[in-house]
Design brief:
- There is one protein chain.
- This protein is mostly helical.
- It has 14 helices and no strands.
- Helix 2 crosses helix 3, helix 3 packs across helix 12 and helix 4 runs parallel beside helix 6.
- The chain is globular.
Amino acid sequence: MVAAPLGLSALTPAALRRLRFHAWLAGLTILLVLSITLAVTVGPADISTGDVWAVIAHRLGLVPDSPVSVLREGIVWELRLPRVLSAALVGAGLAICGAVMQALTRNPLADPYLLGISSGASVGAVAMLLFGATLLLPAGAFLGALAAMGLTLGLARALGAITASRAILAGLAVSALASALTSFLIFSTATGDSYREILSWLMGSLAGMRWSDTGLAAMVFAAVGLPLLASGRILDGFVFGDTAARVLGIDVERTRWLMLGATALLTGVLVAISGSIGFVGLILPHAVRLVAGGRHRHLLPLAALAGAVFMVWTDTAARTLFDPRELPVGIVTAMIGAPAFFLILLRNRRAT
C-alpha cells in the first residue's frame, strides 16, 4: 500500500486560510521593517541602511559606540526616524479604524474621512491651535471627532435604519458642515503666517514630527488600536447583521457605540498629530480583502501592516518628489485614493 503524498492539497480549507494568513503576516512585517529602514535613508544626506541600524543600536544602548558621525546620527534619530515611525502608526491606525467602521455599519464605503470624523477632528484641532491651547490639541480633536460621529449616526438613524447610503449621505453633510466651521474659524481668527501653517496642517503633514508626537501616537495605538485588532470575532458577528451578532452573545448596541467611540478616539489623536489625511481607512481594508479574504481576525492585522507601509512611502514621496519644497501628504493619499474609490464604486455596482 502506497502512502498518499503530503502537500498543500492535503490541507483542509481552514488550514489553507491560516497558512495564507501567516504567509501574508510574515511578508508584510518584513516589508514594513524594510520600508522603515529604506525610508530613513531617503533624503539629501548620504545615509546607508547600516547607519540607520547603527544609530538605533547605539541610542538603545545595545552598543557603546556609534560609527556614525554626530551630524548624521542627529539626522537619523532626531529628524527622520520619528517622522517615519509616526507615518507608520498613522497609516496602521487609520486602516484599522476604516476596517472597524465598515464592519460596524455594514457599509463598504465607510471610513473616518467619508463619515465626517476626520473633518470633525479638524474642527476641534484647529480651534485649539487658534486659541493657543496646543497642549489640548489631541483632546480637542477627539471631542470634534466624537461629536461628528454622533451627529452622522444620529442623522442616519433619524431617516430610519442605518443603511450604507444613509450613512454616507449623513457623513457627507456632517463633513461639509465641519469643513465650513473650520473655514469660518480660520477666516475669523487666523492672522499672518498662521494661515499658511493651518492650511498646511489641514492638508495633512508629518513635517517636524518629534519623539513626543511618536510617543503619543504609539501610546494611543497601544491602548485603543491593539484591542481593536483583537476584536475580529466580534466584527465577524456584526457583518452578518445585528440578529446574528446577538445570537453569538454580543451586546450589539453597547459594543457598537464602544467601538465607534474607540475609533473616534484613535482617529482624533492621529488627526491631531498628522492633520486630515483621507482615503487610507477606505482603500487599505479593501485592498487587503482582495488578497486575504474578509475574516476580520485576518483582515485587521494585515490592514494595519499594509496601512503602515502605505503611509511610510506616501510620506516619503511627499517630502522628496518636489524637493526642496514639501507636498502635503494628504494630497498624495487623495491622488491615489480618489481613483481607488472610483474603482470600488464600480466594483460594488457590478456586484449589485
